[in-house]
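Exercise 3.2. Students should predict the tertiary structure of the chain below and write it as structure tokens, then compare their answer with the key that follows.

Predict this chain's 3D structure.
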Amino acid sequence: MRKKKGFSLLEILIVIGIIAIITTIALPIYFRALEDAKRNTQWNNINTFIKQIELFSIKSGRFPTYQEFQNIIKSSQIFSETPTCPYNGISYTFTSNLSNFRNLMQNNNFNNAHFLYYTSTQKNFIILGAGLFPHPKIKFY
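Answer key:
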């Protein structure tokens, strides 16, 4: 009697079925973790901007103007490299025009997540961006 070598069709189908079940379970978890990482990176970048605004406020007794804020972000003393948006890999672009910002965010996807809105007065400031609400770690003034 000849001994069979290899796997039967049934054994191969069972293994393929098990791999499919594991993939079905693992892929949504992976994509959720990927999205959480992007969101947390966005939050950390924004939090870094907020810390720089607060530091400027402590030093000068007021919040930076839009132009001063742009200079802070571009300063090589603060950032070793220009911060980029995790959703699309583009460097952040700030605007002080709220209607322009609303138009960019109208489609409600993250293609324009690198656009942020910044405005300030002597006593407070606002910074807005895609995917920023709600988050318990960020303080808005």
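Discussion points: Confidence is low (pLDDT under 50) at residues 134-141. The chain has three helices and three strands.
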